[in-house]
Amino acid sequence: MEYRRLGATGFKVPVLSFGAGTFGGSGPLFGAWGDTDAVDARRLVDICLEAGVTMFDTADVYSNGASEEVLGEAVKGRRDKVLLSTKATLRVGEGANDVGASRFHLVQAVEAALKRLGTDYIDLFQLHAFDAFTPVEETLSTLDMLVRAGKIRYVGVSNFSGWQLMKSLAVADRYGYPRYVANQTYYSLIGRDYEWELMPLGLDQGVGALVWSPLGWGRLTGKIRRGQPLPKTSRLHETAGFGPPVDDELLFRVVDALDAIAEETGRSVPQIALNWLLRRPTVSSVIIGARNEEQLRQNLGAVGWELTSDQVARLDAASAATPAYPYSPYHRQAGFAELNPPAV
Question: Is 62 a catalytic residue?
Fold first, then answer.
C-alpha cells in the first residue's frame, strides 16, 4: 500500500481509505447502502489492515451514529494500528443547537463521537458542511481548543466551496489556528467539477483531497451499460436522489471507455476508475466502501499497478466537460492559459 502526506503535513495516510457508511444500516439512505454489524465489520477491518488500509472514515449522521459505534467495536483492541476520521455539523437531532459549527455543537459532537468510537482522540476531524451562520473565528478557535486538548489531531472540511475554504484558511493564518489540511470532496470520472477551483486551491494551499464516492454514486461499478435498464439490485433505485446528478451521455461515454480499457488490462471497471483518481493532483486518499468481503477485495485491486499514459488520456477525453465561467476561458484561450496554467 502506498502512503501519501495529507496535504502540506507530515501526516501520512494510505492511498485507499475505508468508508464506514455501510456500517449500521438505518434510515432511507444508509439502510440502502448496507447494514454491516460489528462482527462483519471486524472482518472487513481485518482485510483492510492486511492490505495496508489503515484509515477508516465515518460521520455522526451515518445511520444516526451507529456507523461510529460499529466502527469503534470493529477496531477495539487495535486503536494504535488504525487512523480514525469522522465528521460533524449536519443535523443530528431536533434541538436548536443540534446542527452547525458553533462552539456549543462542535464540542458536543466531538465528545459524542469519542464515546461512540471508543477512543480518546480522533486522528482527523472534518466539518461535514460549511455553516454560514457561525463566524469562522468561532469555529476555528473551537477546533484549536480541541486540538490543544488532544481530542483531535488534524482538521479538515467536506463539501466546502472554494471561497468558504479559502476564507477559513485565511482566518486560521491570521490567528494561528490549525489549518484545514484535508478536503473530503466528491470527485470521479463522471464528476470532475473539483478540478476547476478546489484542486488549484488545494495545490496552492497544501490541502489534500480525500475523495468520496469515487465510483460516481455507484454508477461506475460495471453494472450499468448503454441501452440497458438499471439492474433491479442497484442501490440507485433508492439513493439516486441523494447524490450528485450526472448527465447520461457523459456516463455512458465514460462507461464505454472503461469497458474498452478493462478488456485491455484485465482489470475491472471499478478498479480502473479508482486507479485513474489515484493519478490526479492533490489526491491524498480515495475512500472506498464495501458491503461484503468480495466487494472490498475487488476495490483493493485498484492499487499495485498503473494505467498507461494513453489509457489515462482516453479516460480524460471521455470524461471531459466544459467548465463553468470563469474557468472555461483558461482552457480555451492562450492568453488565459499563459496566466493560469491548468492543474491537470
Answer: yes
